[in-house]
Design a protein that fits this description.
Distance between the termini: 120 Å
Strand content: 15-25%
Number of helices: 12
CATH superfamily of one domain: P-loop containing nucleotide triphosphate hydrolases
Helix content: 25-40%
Largest sheet: 6 strands, mixed
Mean pLDDT: 82
Strand order of the largest sheet: 6-7-8-3-9-10
CATH architecture of one domain: 3-Layer(aba) Sandwich
Shape: elongated
Radius of gyration: 42 Å
Low-confidence stretches: 23-41
Oligomer: single chain
CATH topology of one domain: Rossmann fold
Number of strands: 10
Structural class: alpha/beta
Order of helices and strands: HHEEEHEEHEHHHHEHEHEEHH
Length: 345
């Protein structure tokens, strides 16, 4: 019973303490014990009283951070319209530069007209390093004009033509483009018929010698090995001492390809290489070009679908100066548009 009484008294005391004003010692309340006049230790606060720390002990308020600025999808608007247009052009040019950086040949939006006829109409084509591509299409599709533009024979009206990522071919002539590493073989073979096969290759070797110097100078071992490798590639090793005039049509085509290889091009453009060849020569030419494509890029323009299938490469079909279809030969051959304008004829 005594214990119960003590508990009740304790609760009553706590209630009275809470009812007192929350002041300091001098105003008569708030503290359970009045402390002496000491200035070293402040009096202890009463139970339940809020304790405010000293000013020098209060932690610094956290620094406010700026809220992130939301990125808007709206196009940039400059105070001057011309500045906005120039900025958009610069950004587009940078994007195109990144796209063509790892390509060997890059055509974008190329157009060329002759007397109002658009031989090339907004043509875009990309050839990767080490790639062989077959170009097909009906007569007048723009295949020859495309190669004329690549080699500098014809200037486009507009569009981009880049080689090796950053070389603008529209600013160079045929000779400069050939020296950069682009070789072109036309439909009709052009060889020195009064010279032997080996002499044709030697005359074509990259260098600055004159024709006479090329024929009479002493051959070093490096040159011998290079000529030997080319003769083996073009399947004319056993014809090295044969005059070019005595070769078959197919062998003359191979010799001209070898003459281009002697100039060490990165990109080889070959226009209808198997036209007029026998079936055996056609099949051997497909193997020859596949061998060449192991070390350089090759673009082959051809109408012979059997030959294109033997190449086993990506196919691009042109029509009226633009890309009509692109992909594997099976995919392109099954395209209704290609059947209508080309294969169905």
């Amino acid at each position: 019973m005594a214990t119960t009484t003590k508990v009740v008294d304790k609760v009553a005391e706590d209630v009275r303490a809470l009812a007192r004003p929350q002041g300091g010692v001098g105003d008569g309340g708030g503290y359970a014990e009045a402390a002496g006049p000491s200035t070293t230790h402040p009096p202890a606060p009463a139970a339940g009283a809020a304790v405010r720390p000293a000013a020098d002990a209060m932690p610094a308020e956290p620094a406010q951070t700026a809220e992130p600025v939301a990125v808007r999808d709206e196009p940039f608007v400059s105070p001057h319209p011309f500045a906005t247009e120039m900025r958009e052009r610069r950004l587009a040019a940078e994007a195109n530069g990144r796209a063509r950086r790892d390509t060997l040949l890059y055509l974008n939006g190329v157009t060329k007209s002759f007397d109002g006829f658009k031989a090339i109409n907004n043509l875009s084509l990309v050839i990767q390093k080490g790639e062989m591509r077959a170009i097909i299409g009906p007569n007048g599709a723009g295949k020859t004009t495309m190669m004329d533009i690549i080699t500098g024979k014809t200037r486009p009206d507009r569009g981009e033509v880049y080689f090796a990522g950053d070389v603008d071919l529209t600013h160079h002539d045929e000779a400069a483009i050939a020296s950069m590493g682009i070789g072109r073989k036309f439909q009709k073979p052009t060889v020195f018929e009064s010279h032997t096969v080996e002499d044709n290759i030697r005359l074509s070797l990259s260098g600055s010698r004159s024709v006479l110097d090329a024929l009479v100078h002493r051959k070093d071992e490096a040159e011998r090995q290079r000529i030997e490798a080319i003769l083996e590639t073009i399947r004319l090793k056993d014809k090295r001492k044969t005059f070019a005039a005595n070769l078959s049509h197919g062998q003359k085509q191979w010799l001209e390809i070898g003459m281009l290889l002697a100039q060490d091009p990165e990109l080889l453009l070959v226009d209808e290489p198997v036209a007029g060849m026998t079936d055996a020569e056609t099949e051997e030419t497909a193997r020859l070009l596949r061998d060449i494509a192991r070390t350089r890029s090759v673009v082959v323009v051809e109408h012979d679908m059997h030959f294109v299938r033997e190449l086993g490469v990506k196919v691009t079909c042109l029509h009226e100066g633009s890309v009509l279809s692109e992909g594997t030969l099976d995919k392109v051959s099954a395209d209704p548009k290609v059947i209508e304008v080309y294969l169905g004829r």
